[in-house]
Amino acid sequence: MSTTTRDDRRGDSPPPRTGNSEAEVLRGFLDYLRTSIAAKVENAPEPQARTAGVPSGTNLLGLLHHLTFVERAMFLGDRVTDWQATFQAAPADSGADVVAHYRRTVERANRVLDGCTDLGAPVPRPGPGRPAPSLRWALVHMIEETGRHAGHADILREQIDGAVGR
Q1: Phi, psi of 122, deg, nearest 5
Q2: Is 127 helix (H, G, I), strand (E, B) or coil?
Q3: Which of 84, 106, 79, 87 is nearest to 153 (CA)?
Q4: Coil, helix or strand for 164?
Q5: pTM as predicted
């Protein structure tokens, strides 16, 4: 049984209140998770933020760097040829650089999503030879992907400096 009280979880924020439409709910939760993981990485001390926290090599900056590529592939049409490489931020990129790049990518992705009104329509993607999933599938996948990595980031950040909360 947990003895944690609401006061012990500083910085925790509840799930978003969204509009009633399916698109508003999906986009609201995706943006909530995007904000949560960026906040988890923001101001994380270096070099710990890029140091592997688990045997698989996963590190805090690498998670956000990876999600930047996932956003770009899903909503902006970028092709990624080596997904494993996306889990490592460039040595020259600071934590602030990685967070800023992620936020800019999310802004670009949201501009694309703003133009999509039919959740059953394919996500607009340039490039031949790749079938595009429906916008509904893409949003649910991005909620799953971002939520999964936000959970990893929660644990890694707590290991680094004890920071908890969303």
Answers
A1: -70, 150
A2: coil
A3: 87
A4: coil
A5: 0.89
Token pair 């694309």 in the structure block, residue: 112
User: By C-alpha distance, which of 7, 41, 21 is closest to 146?
Assistant: 41
pLDDT in tens, 103-116: 999 999 999 999 99
pLDDT digits (tens, 9 = 90+) for 142-154: 999 999 999 999 9
User: Would you list the DSSP string of 61-120?
Assistant: HHHHHHHHHHHHHHHS----S-GGGGGS--TT--HHHHHHHHHHHHHHHHHHHHT---TT
Here the tokens at position 111 are 């501009």
State the sign of the Cα–Cα–Cα–Cα dihedral 29, 35, 37, 40: negative
- Residue 87 banded pLDDT, cuts 50, 70, 90: very high
For the chain, the residue count is: 166
Task: Choose among 145, 158, 124, 154: nearest CA to 70.
Answer: 145
Asked if 123 and 133 touch (Cβ cutoff 8 Å), the reply is yes
The dihedral over CA atoms of 108, 113, 114, 119, expressed in degrees to the nearest 10, equals: 180
